[in-house]
Structures are given as C-alpha cells and as structure tokens.
Write the structure tokens for this entry.
Amino acid sequence: MPDATGFESGGWRITGRKTWSTGVRALRWALVTAATPDGQVGRYWVDLHGSGVRIEPTWQGALALRGSGSHDVVFTDAPSGLHAPPAPGQPASSAWFWTAIAATYLGVGFAALDAIATYARVRVPTALGAPIATLPRIQENVGRMVTSLQAARALLLDATAQWDVDPSAGSVPAIGAAKAHATNAAVFATDLASRTAGGAALSATLPLEKLLRDARAGLTHPPTDDTAYTTLGRLLLEE
C-alpha cells in the first residue's frame, strides 16, 4: 500500500507502488488507498497524467488475465486530493472485495463447464459414432464440476447473506473462506474440463486453455487459502 503525507497547502502527496492496476493505461484519474504516517488508511484522488506518477509495464506476457493490462503504478510524491478521510480499517472493504473476487472466478469456472458441455455434445469420434457426452466418464466429470461450482456458489451466497444481516468484522471470515473455496472450485473445474476435452483443450478453438490460466489468477488474490481458513477456524474456536 502506498504512503500518504500532508504538505503545506493542505493537500497530500502519495509515495509507493500500486500493483495490479487494471486498465491503468486508459485512465486519467485513480482513487488510491494509502496509509498515513500514523497507520490510518485514507483514499486519495491522483491525476495519473500529473507529476510524480509513472506506469511501469510489468504485465506483458502475464500467465493470466493478459487483457486486463494490470501494470504497476509508481508514485513519487504525487500530489493528491483527499477523497475519504483517514480512518481505522473498515471491514466492508474486505467483504466487498472478496465477494467480487469469488463471484468473478466462479464465473470462470462456470464458463469452463459450459464450454466442455457444448464440446461434449458435438464431439463425435469416428470409433465411437456418438457424441462423447454419452460416455459415463464424461458424464461423471461434468457432474463433479457442477457439484463443486454449485457448492461454492451456495457457500458464497450464505456468507454474503450473513453479512447483509450483520455487516461487521465478525462476518468477514466466512466471506474470506467462501472466496478461497470459490477460487479453488474454479481451478478444479477448469482443470477437469481441460482433462475431459483432452488434446482439444490445448487449441485456441476452445476457450479452455485461457479459462485454465485465468482461474489460476484467483489464487493470488487475498486472502490466501491458509489465512482464510485459519481466520474462520479461529473465530469459531473462540466462541
């Protein structure tokens, strides 16, 4: 997280590096979360075309999400205006971010499920003389994918429903665990879809190779699996 310091005119200056700056080359303004010297967190408007701002092209050839253009932005005493005053951490930030991440990668998993289901219905090997969708192994694999993804979606919906009832720090660990479960379900589904398609999954004619790479990106977003599950377990054991 970048740092924010005040200066004489009453404004702020931002110093630090922001990674995963999605779409930054197309943006003029950024709303940057930064820590003040006393450890509080505020949000600041920064002109990306202004002084003290440099975009570092770190995203070429990324394993996944290449189209996001998530390059780094380096701030060096960049002038900024206060948008939201410094304050202690707000649990809603994690709740909303983790929910969005979980939903995004579940979408990747369900896209892989749709792709392999469509392929299985139209792929007719000469030796079989029928669509591979008629094979028990293909049916089992699709059933495993459906179960994993729907279970992850149900867990996410339950965790977010708890947040709606009680939007406090005590409801955040369940969302963190749901995020971990959802991203792993997406990885499982895209991997199994690729295995099911066989060599065809390596071709760009199917979206599976891209979905497989994109799903892996979900594991890099916080919270990590160990943190998510440990935090939820600690909460339950302390009750």
